[in-house]
Task: structure prediction
Amino acid sequence: MTKYKIMIPLVLGLFVWQGIADAASISTRVRVLEGKVAKQDRVIKNSLKSLSVRNSKGEQALAKVNALEKKVEKLLKGDRGKKRLERADKRYAFP
Result:
């Protein structure tokens, strides 16, 4: 009888400790995964910020280029008009 009195609590204690160990293992894994998810979240947020900054800089540069193109077109239109006047004057000039 004493043998059973010792064995039964030991077996029950083993099952209890196994359950506690499993729970601790699961909670540790969850903490590790939460840390990895938080790290990935930070990386994604940083990349989105840098992407938006790059896009805004690109849009500003494109606006500058478009403005310069308009200025060049205006200058070319002005030069064409002057050249036509010069040609007209040269046709009637004395040789």
Q: What stands out?
A: The mean pLDDT is 86. The chain is about 95% helix and 0% strand. The radius of gyration is 41 Å.
